[in-house]
């Protein structure tokens, strides 16, 4: 109930089922739920992946809860059918409910989403304030949400509404300690990389949570769920160099014994040797560097503008500090030549990273690259180049630097982690090689 004896508007937030997807905490929905709870509105979250709900069960849950508003998380365009199927199922189960879609997919093409007769409203951008407007009676079909400047005003994600134990059952090979979960300490990114579409949701203006607010959440997660590792899922956590230092200082001060990483990468141009050493002391055990290309012309073309010489230095500092290092690399940008791709592979090998990942270019809706000329290479050619890149990189790492390994294998859990990473990395290369061999065999058999 709310003031005046009027029944409060009920909201159901749904993370749609996606076949073969690994359950991960839908932190965006948990943030939305936290904001509604702060303002005393009843809300429930259904994660159809974690709860293994089929369509019949989901429809039954919708009818049982009988919400006034159904919010559907729509993150990636490749799963658009799942989002629209969920919208249709929701309308069929409860025709009077207002169906709202939000997330990256909904934000990059709201007009397309609104063509679906089962969708009543699209939220473009951050959803907390927009959902409050909807709950309070907004009839707008397309809401362009304002960016929240003071992130400390947003409550912690309402993880208590989620089946948290389900997320801890799966152990990623990238995770050192279980249970592990994600925390987001900032929103937005001031960079303009042409392959990225995060601006459609978080915007270009970087905003941060206070150091105390961030570490308070981490401490709460440890107390409530026994969390032993945090993945900082910011798009650019270290934009503010001083704040990164202060987060490390606070983690050290509270002595939480939490390991942490930044799987989305870190802005290496903000790092120096002193900060890297402090990060290691504060619990950081792995750094991912989004190098993307090892060619200077392509660095400018994709608007990444990394100083490759400085990147080598930062990687060396991280290795010297005993932190595992991974680089991510993208193959097949528009205008990119085969020699420029070779430069990327060569840089990955010579840069000194422990592991390198090679991805084919994914063209996200809303990214600049979507509007550029077509890629020169076919998907099959890129896969062949990927296979060779992994083969070359693995071969280059067969001569192990024992001195460097000793710095990183400082505990039994770290030894186990190292072997998990090695097996995962090798399996990627093997899968690519097997795919290539299978396709070649079929082409020969059928004279393709």
TrEMBL record:
InterPro entries assigned: BchE-like, Cobalamin-bd, Cobalamin-bd_sf, Elp3/MiaA/NifB-like_rSAM, Methyltransferase_Class_B, rSAM, rSAM_horseshoe, rSAM_sf
GO MF term list: 4 iron, 4 sulfur cluster binding; catalytic activity; cobalamin binding; metal ion binding
GO CC field: cytosol
Residues covered by the Radical SAM core domain: 175-397
Alphabetically ordered keywords of this record: Iron, Iron-sulfur, Membrane, Metal-binding, Methyltransferase, S-adenosyl-L-methionine, Transferase, Transmembrane, Transmembrane helix
UniProt keyword S-adenosyl-L-methionine present: yes
Taxon lineage: unclassified sequences, metagenomes, organismal metagenomes
Cofactor: [4Fe-4S] cluster
Protein name according to UniProt: Putative radical SAM superfamily protein
Keyword Iron-sulfur listed: yes
Transmembrane annotation, as ranges: 414-433
Residues in the signal sequence: none
Classification via Pfam families: B12-binding, Radical_SAM
Residue ranges constituting the B12-binding domain according to the UniProt record: 10-145
């Amino acid at each position: 109930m709310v003031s005046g004896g009027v029944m409060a508007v009920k909201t159901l937030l749904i993370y749609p089922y996606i076949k073969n997807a690994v359950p991960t905490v839908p932190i965006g929905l948990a943030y939305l739920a936290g904001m509604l709870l702060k303002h005393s509105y009843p809300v429930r979250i259904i994660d159809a992946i974690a709860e293994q709900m089929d369509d019949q069960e989901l429809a039954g849950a919708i009818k049982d809860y009988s919400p006034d508003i159904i919010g559907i998380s729509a993150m990636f365009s490749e799963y658009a059918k799942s989002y629209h199927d969920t919208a249709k199922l929701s309308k069929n189960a409860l025709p009077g409910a207002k169906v709202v879609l939000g997330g990256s997919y909904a934000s990059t093409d709201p007009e397309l989403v609104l063509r679906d007769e089962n969708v009543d409203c699209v939220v473009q951008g951050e959803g907390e304030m927009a959902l409050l407007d909807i709950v309070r009676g907004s009839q707008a079909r397309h809401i362009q949400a304002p960016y929240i400047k003071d992130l400390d005003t947003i409550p912690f994600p309402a993880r208590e509404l989620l089946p948290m134990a389900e997320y801890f059952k799966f152990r990623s090979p990238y995770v050192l300690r279980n249970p592990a979960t994600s925390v987001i300490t900032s929103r937005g990114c001031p960079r303009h990389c042409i392959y990225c579409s995060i601006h459609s949701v978080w915007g270009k203006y970087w905003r941060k949570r206070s150091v105390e607010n961030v570490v308070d959440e981490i401490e709460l997660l440890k107390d409530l769920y026994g969390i032993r590792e945090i993945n900082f899922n910011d798009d650019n956590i270290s934009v503010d160099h001083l704040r990164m230092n202060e987060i490390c200082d606070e983690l050290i001060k509270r002595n939480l014994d939490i390991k942490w990483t930044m799987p989305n990468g870190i802005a290496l141009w903000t790092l120096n040797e002193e900060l890297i050493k402090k990060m290691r002391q504060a619990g950081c055990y792995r750094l991912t560097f989004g190098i993307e290309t090892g060619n200077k012309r392509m660095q400018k073309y994709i608007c990444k503008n990394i100083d490759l010489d400085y990147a080598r230095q930062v990687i060396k500092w991280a290795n010297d500090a005993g932190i595992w290092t991974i680089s991510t690399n993208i193959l097949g940008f528009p205008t990119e030549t085969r020699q420029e791709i070779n430069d990327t592979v060569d840089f990955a090998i010579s840069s000194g990273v422990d592991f390198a990942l090679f991805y084919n270019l994914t063209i996200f809706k809303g990214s600049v690259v979507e509007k550029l000329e077509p890629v020169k290479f076919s998907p099959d050619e890129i896969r062949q180049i990927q296979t060779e890149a992994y083969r070359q990189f693995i071969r280059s790492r067969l001569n192990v630097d024992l001195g460097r390994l000793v710095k990183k294998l400082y505990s039994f859990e770290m030894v186990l982690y190292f072997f998990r990473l090695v097996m995962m990395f090798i399996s990627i290369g093997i899968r690519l090689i097997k795919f290539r061999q299978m396709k070649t065999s079929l082409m020969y058999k059928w004279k393709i």
